[in-house]
Amino acid sequence: TYNASSTLQDQLEKLTDSDSLESEKVLSYNRANRAVAILCNHQRSVPKTHQKSMENLREKIDKKKETIEEAEKKVKEAKRNAKHGSEKEKIEYEKKKKQLDRLREQLIKLEVQETDRDENKTIALGTSKLNYLDPRISVAWCKKFNVPIEKIYNKTQRAKFRWAIDMAG
Questions:
Q1: What is the pLDDT of residues 3-29, one digit of tens each?
Q2: Are residues 34 and 19 in the same domain?
Q3: Is 132 annotated as catalytic?
Q4: Which family does the similarity line name (predicted)?
């Protein structure tokens, strides 16, 4: 347990960038947890549904990229209109620009999910997270990097580790 917790702490310090998106921070956490799971030899066989779920995720990513391309064209057009246009057209341009940014963030989230899912196919992360890691480390990490605790622990796990969550305030 000590080795597992200290490995998690070291890996979290190495892997987490405070400027990255929330989904990238969660990926960093999972990578740190993966290092612990490998240390503890928590292996599993590749799930039968892995290939299909990866294909579905790939399709979602491809569709999102197409949507982004269309949105980029709309933003360019709106920008042209806004240069010489009315206030309404300028507002429309800003709206389209924000939508494009949102789509790009969604794409990053999907790509991070794909990476995470593929990297975890043979490692059982739950075993180390529930039985070997000091939850105070995870809770403190969540607070430090403004990651909602729900992204790390599900409802049952949050109930189990309520004491650690309460300690962190």
A1: 999 999 999 999 999 999 999 999 999
A2: yes
A3: yes
A4: Belongs to the type IB topoisomerase family.
Looking at the fold, whether 74 and 36 belong to one and the same domain comes out as: no
Give the CATH number of the domain where residue 7 resides.
1.10.132.10
Tokens, residue 55: 């294909």
39-94 residue pLDDT tens: 999 888 998 999 999 999 999 999 999 999 999 999 999 888 888 878 888 899 99
Catalytic residue among 29, 93, 132, 153: 132
**Quick one: 64 and 103 in the same domain?**
yes
Alpha helices in 85-134 (DSSP H): 87-119, 125-131
Number of domain units in the chain: 2
* Single residue among 119, 135, 161 that ends a domain in this structure: 119
**Rounded CA gap, 41 and 6, in Å?**
16
Query: DSSP assignment of 33-90, as one string?
Result: HHHHHHHTT-B-PPPTTHHHHHHHHHHHHHHHHHHHHHHHHHHHHHHHHHHHS-HHHH
Report yes or no: 103 and 16 within 8 Å, Cβ to Cβ.
no
Q: Which domain holds residue 37?
A: 1-44+123-169
